[in-house]
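3.2 Worked example (two chains)
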Amino acid sequence: LKEENATLRSKISRLQILSETQADKMRKLEKKLEENKIKEEKEAQDLEAMVQHVEQNLQLMTKRAVKAENSVSKLRQENALLQVQLKNYKAENEALQLGQAGLAAAKQNAELALQHLLRVTTSSRASIRQLLSGAESLQLVADLLKSIDRISEVSEDGQ
């Protein structure tokens, strides 16, 4: 009975040591779980901040694109008006050439109109390039937002 008692005490002692070891492991795992939760929350906050920043940039780019579109529209209208004026000046120039009256003045007017038209055309092209660049930036932001959504979906599925 004493031997059996000693054996049982030995087993109890080993079980207590095992229990303490497992309790230590449990505490470590709980601590690690808490650290992971904190880390995950921070990553979620960082991701949310990044999404908000991207959304702000997207709004800003959208405003710029709208402004550029309006500018392009105005420049196109001005370009069309100047082309009509150029045609009128050319017609006037031809009429003056036929009549041999005021040839120098008509040429000067046509040259001025042509120079103005070339400046507006150059400016219009630059604005159109700027608009296209803004559209490419918007596409890049949209792709980034799509990838963020996918990351969020994968993260939610993994939980």
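3.2.1 Second chain
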Amino acid sequence: MVKYGLDYTRCRWILPLLLGIGVIFGIIALAGRGWLESQTLPYVQQASLWQSCRRPDQGGEWNCVSLMGYAWGRAAAATYLVGFLLLVICFALAIIAFAIDTLRFNFIRGIGGLLFVAAVFSIMGLVIYPVKFSSEIEMTGINMFSWAYGFGWTTAIMEICLGFFFCCLPNYEDQILGNVKPTYFYSSP
């Protein structure tokens, strides 16, 4: 964004856009039923962040049990939800920060710090869930942590990467605002 002459006015919405994509991925992870699924036939196990479902045979009814009855289920859901809410707050703050004509770079660095805190909470929830789920819930067959769990990890990785971008962006304040004279590497013959 800085080195190759991309205009700041054209590129100023890239970081808030990436935060918005992270929010969408977080919503998919929170609402998705694919945190854990059976890998092979017959598909007998399926779980989300909120509940675990199993069925006795291929054509049977799903029997669901809430994971909120377990202390670790509440802890995993709460920590991931706190990380997601901090991500939404960072998204709103980034929209405000980049909508103002005079960009406040210290404000942007604060958003980066808040993104790191959000990543810590998200990762705590993403680690608690599989460790305690596999030890507390009886699983039959071959199971895998699936697509919604992957969206959760994608959200956490995006929080970390965007946290670095938001923290490092103020270091290039003069280049972004166009206050630096270009240097030409030309030697006369």
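3.3 Remarks
Helices lie at 8-11, 14-31, 71-99, 105-136, 147-168, 173-177.
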